[in-house]
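My current task is to audit a protein record that another person submitted. What it holds is a sequence and that sequence's fold in token form. Thanks in advance; the entry in question is below.
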Amino acid sequence: MTFGINTYLFASPFTNASANWFPKFKAWGFDGVEIAVESPSHIAPAFVRSQLDRHQLKCTSVCACFPPSRDLRGNLSQQRAAVRYLKELIEIAGILGTDIVAGPLYSATGRAEAVPGPVYKRQWRTVRQHLKTICRQAQTQGKIICMEPLNRFETDFMNTVDQGLQMIAEVKSPALKLLLDTFHMNIEEKNPAAAIRKAGKNIGHFHASATDRGTPGNDHLNWQEIGNALKSVKYGGPIVIESFTKDVKVIARAAAIWRKIEPRRDEIARKGLKFLSKTLRPEMAV
């Protein structure tokens, strides 16, 4: 189990210059970095990898971003753009040294509609077919694609572990896993710990997010139950803090961060890591 920090807390978009944050991440005690690649043109992957290696950090995962122009259930242009983008991210992941491409990769984030049942079923079939194609490439290159169920305000397509498991069962690829996020589970799951246990071996990645998007541990979530559930399913993958602040304007708007949730964003990273290390992996407490 390794602990990482998502770059959205400090930069959007992430560019080569954003690697200047890496020394601080290392000094704070992180094992790795989840790099949000909003556009492949924003970075030179080999350079970013060299900076990760220089500071003895791993790329825990590549975080995918889906604006309206990329949508696996959208019009043909949006679908093609999303497929092309995901295939590029698989290549970039290889250069950055991670096996994981993760995110709400089935649809544009923020697209939440009350579509009729038959329309939803058609969208589901379309996404399923695209995921089969993407997972074939991922499997060939030894990568995994981790779908993230989002809360109802950010998508109407996939909100729960049950929906994610259904898609995995239908795609039938070992390259397709789930990214579970405590922020979204707190809204959508009856019991987040039970949802983790249900997902079991299908969990490929994990976001530790406070219930208010602030510091993990400085919220009402029962983190001890979360830790026990992860241990019960023998999850040994990355634990990544994904939090947002008003400092990064684009992400603040997208995530509806309208007020200062914590005094400083570096405190979210440092205090969150200390708490999670003690709660989820006691032997590695910082």
Notes: The CA atoms of residues 28 and 169 lie 39 Å apart. Residues 2-284 form a domain with the TIM Barrel fold (CATH 3.20.20.150). The mean pLDDT is 93. The longest helix spans residues 117-140.
